[in-house]
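Customer ticket, subject: "Can you confirm the structure for Copper ABC transporter permease?"

Message body: Hello, I'm evaluating your service for our small team and ran a test protein. I'd like someone to confirm that this is what the system normally returns, since I don't have a reference to compare against.
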Amino acid sequence: MNPMKGLLKKDYRISRQYFWIWTGVLVLALAAGIGLSIYASQPAGTLPVLVLTSFVHFAFAPVFMLSLLNLESKTQLWLYTPRRGIELILSKFGVIFSYQVVLQILLSFYAAFIIFWFGREVYEPISFRLFLEAAVLLNALLLMVGFYLTTWLTFLWTVFHSLKNLAKTIRWIIVIGTVFLYNIVESFLLSLKPIKNLINKFNVEVISEAALSYKDEQWSVMFGSTDIPVLPLIYYALLMVILITAASKLLEQKVEV
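Agent reply: Thanks for trying us out. I re-ran your input and got the following:
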């Protein structure tokens, strides 16, 4: 068997129970949104459910990665594996990515269902093409934010455990200090006018908000749009590559907890 396939198979096996639990809770939440909306005769009631469940999925990838890393730390199997650190980490990213894509497709179908059928009388009419474009961009943004947070979590987790010879308090200070220092540097760079102008030079317009409006004893939903700068997305993608590479190098030091 291909070594990478073996790693993927193992990570799917140890994580699938958590995935089905998460999916079950999500389906129940979406069904409850429709059920309560029918009960109250307010189809727009599905909007808060869609927004809330979508925001929760910013945390899906980090939470799942932390669960897998902690599970691996209990067995210590990676201390004896011949696989490279980058392979061990990418296997987990691949599994989590496939799970999140499935969940976001489910959310996208739910959004299409409530906009074009269940709540078509109260949601502002939009073309399917516009919906599709917005769904692709917003799903990509959701994936990127989730995995950006996950790369930071993975990097900081490996930093924390690579410093096993230090007291736990000192390790926490180093981890928190790393995040604090990075945010100071990033905030300073973003405050520079040339960088501000460069960031706002290239933008993509997407549907970014949906506002509730109450009239004639009926809630309705209106959509708004905003511009998303492109260059920061490229920057954060490169930063993710750097963090994953650094985490894999630390992991190859045979992190022990």
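A couple of notes from the result: Helices lie at 3-40, 46-56, 60-75, 85-118, 128-162, 168-191, 193-199, 231-251. Strands lie at 203-215, 218-229. Feel free to reply with more questions.
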